Amino acid sequence: MRPARRAPISRLSSRRTLLRNEDVKHPALTTLLAGAAHALKLADPTIGDSLIAVPSMIGHASTVARRYAEFSILPTAAGLVVVPFTDDLDVSVASSRVTVGRPQGLALAAPAQPLIDSPAELARSGDGPSFLDFAAWSRAPGGSFLEQARRLKLAVAVARPDEADRLYLRLARFYLANGFSAEALGVLDLMQAGNPGLKSDPQIQTMRAAADYMLGRYHDAHNEIAGGGFDTDRHAAFWRGLIEAAQLNWDAARKDLAQALPVLRLYAPEWQARARIADARAALAADAVETADSELARLPGQMPRSLAMEAALARAELLAAEGRSREARSVFHSIETSGDERAGAEAVYADVDAGLAAGTMSQDAAIDALEQLRFRWRGDALELQTLRKLGALYFGRQRWHQGFATLKIASQNFPNEDLARQAEDDMREAFEGLFLKGGADRLPPVQALGLFYDYIDLTPIGPSGDDMIRHMADRLVAIDLLEPAATLLDYQVTKRLDGMARAQVATRLAMIDLLDHKPREALEALRMSQVSGLPPDVVHQRMILQARALAAVKQWDQALDMIATDDSSDSRQLRADIYWESGNWDIAGQKAEALAVPASADTKPLSDETRADVLRAAIAYSLANDEAGLDRLRKNFAARMGVSRDASAFAVVTQKLDTQDAEFRDMAGQIASVDTLEAFMKDFRKRYDDTRMTN
Question: Is residue 387 a contact partner of residue 406, using CB atoms and an 8 Å limit?
């Protein structure tokens, strides 16, 4: 399984770490230098000192001076420069690993001895309750494995009640030590069912954790030894480290494996190798490439094939971290075609990750490779990691639907995993970027709407989510998708908001309902959201919308009463509309003329709105048989209307009453057919939106 993406090589390599080897008799220090192939002995011409230089790739160097008893390290821009203090100091290079030593070993301070390595503890370090002594448990007296297992099961079957637990434990240990994890768990279940007091036994808990780990049930394994009672137990830390590494929790794995290091030698070489591989990967995730190299250098030469593939994969990742991309790619490819399905799948992911980090693989090529991998290997952390990486790549290519769908699979299929929760966080972050921070404004409106509805459950709770919904509703209104906009705001009004926030959103909802010619719905939205203490501008907007909605349902007297004392421009316009719609021609003409009169005093061309008011006033006066009103309009507006595009219409509708004919009736019908509700709401909406933008 793959560690998290590492930092760029230039940052990794500026400070080299020299690590001590494990050879007690011949201690030496080692470090990694990408591109290092040999050491050169040089003489300083100025002071005569001898130097040993190790050339490397640019950017890989020790930039900090260090001093040891037998040599010092000089700061350099590339490579490593050693100043020896003894004649027999040796600097050797092999596969980019630089070793500094002497024939009899360097004079290094003895490593600190942990408490568990004190003489008193060493005498019984293998007897701790969480130490699983597979070497001792894997053998039973006489015969093949089947014969031994049969003998142990027979002993359990005929055992006295007071001996049953001891014999059950012996059988469970035998199974576990020989790799029969499921069988071991079955025996432990029987033990604990017969003796509930054993449910908290530390050795049985550790055995269950080990069995779950071997079965790939890492979440269950983690829970078995997650209790605080195991926090200072180095043997439990050994299993914790392996389990955390399997779950890709690299920081925790590194901490636990460091705690388990003093007891590592008590385990069989194969288990030591597993721990070192896990620690190497954890070190790579922390950019500690020297530690990773040191751990991999300590692996035994002979390992089971599956473990050897894991080691090869870790080495390839180390090569990639050191910037040796071509060598890493070659190893990845050999693992992919090795026939080991799990290692091959992990190699594909690691190859893609390394290629993206190094810039040698395009995002589209990475998507193609990971899409194949997600169906090649399924059911564990590797699939989850693959899905999360795919989602990030799809978002990077602005393929939003594919990204959300991929991450949703991750969160649904792995509900209890930390990486799945991180996938959910990725989805929410992308969703907020689209619908709260304006990212969706660059998408076609219908596509943005579909994306929003498909993943509306990602809407955050609280003010941010409310802002997101309102932003989406405004965008829908802008393209006249009024019904879905109203649906979004209605959900807020009825399900999410209360108080002042509810009243403000309900005001917006009422406006949209009126734009959509749904005055009764607008009245209901305003009625159910009444609250005191609203800002004056919101109170005014609600009053105008309610009056306009009442007029639309022909409750003209109530509408006029509501705005009777208000003298704002939109109230004056609304009064004129109400008298016009109700057929009160005398007053309708007066109100329309009053709207147009201020424009009669200047010399600017008349606006579209003013010309419409003049024409409506003329028709109202004609229908009311008000010749004086028509004379007044001709006097005040004839000259400027005569040079406008409405000159002919003005001439027809202002002709004397006794000369009006069929042409007048046609023109009057055309002007009367104009939807006053739509015209009023268009103007109101513009003023409302301009006010919101200003505020």
Answer: yes
CB 289 within 8 A of CB 12: yes
The strand pairing partners of 97, in sequence order, are: 32, 94
Which of 10-24, 266-280, 564-578, 624-638 has the least mean pLDDT? 10-24
Instruction: Please state, in angstroms and rounded to a whole number, the distance separating the CA atoms of residues 364 and 361.
Output: 8
Q: Count how many residues are written for the chain.
A: 695
Rounded-to-integer distance, Cα 609 and Cα 382, Å: 66
Helix or strand (DSSP H, E) at 5 = none
Start-to-end CA span in the chain (Å): 53
Rg from Cα positions in the chain: 41
* Mean pLDDT of the region 573-579: 88
Do residues 250 and 4 make contact, with C-beta atoms less than 8 angstroms apart? yes
CATH topology of domain 459-566: 1.25.40
Q: What pLDDT digit, counting tens, does each position of 249-279 carry?
A: 999 999 999 999 999 999 999 999 999 999 9
How far apart, in whole angstroms, are the C-alpha atoms of residue 426 and residue 5? 16
The amino acid occupying position 53 is A
- AA identity, residue 9: I
Q: Which residues contact 266 (CB under 8 A, 6 or more apart)?
A: 125, 126, 131
Where helices occur in 569-675 by DSSP H, the ranges are 569-582, 585-596, 608-623, 627-642, 647-653, 662-672
Whole-angstrom distance, CA of residue 359 vs CA of residue 315: 20
Assigned token pair, 280: 């190497």
Continuous segment of H or E residues that includes residue 54:
strand 50-54
**Tokens at 379, concatenated:** 């059911």
Tokens representing residue 239 in the block: 């299993």
Is residue 3 scored above 60 in pLDDT? Answer: no
What is the pairing mode between strands 97-101 and 29-32? antiparallel
Q: Strand 29-32 vs strand 40-43: parallel, antiparallel, or unpaired? A: unpaired
CB-count exposure of residue 413 (10 Å: 0-12, 13-18, 19+): middle
Contact criterion met (CB below 8 Å) for 241 and 253: yes
The answer to whether the beta carbons of residues 498 and 511 sit under 8 Å apart is no
Q: Are the folds of 131-224 and 459-566 the same?
A: yes
* 255, burial (CB in 10 Å: exposed 0-12, middle 13-18, buried 19+): middle
Question: Has residue 76 got a pLDDT over 80?
Answer: yes
CB 456 within 8 A of CB 468: no
Cβ 125 vs Cβ 116: under 8 Å = yes
Instruction: Return the CATH number of the domain spanning residue range 131-224.
Output: 1.25.40
Q: How far apart are CA 248 and CA 244, in angstroms?
A: 6
Going from N- to C-terminal start, the domains of the chain cover 9-101, 131-224, 459-566, 579-681
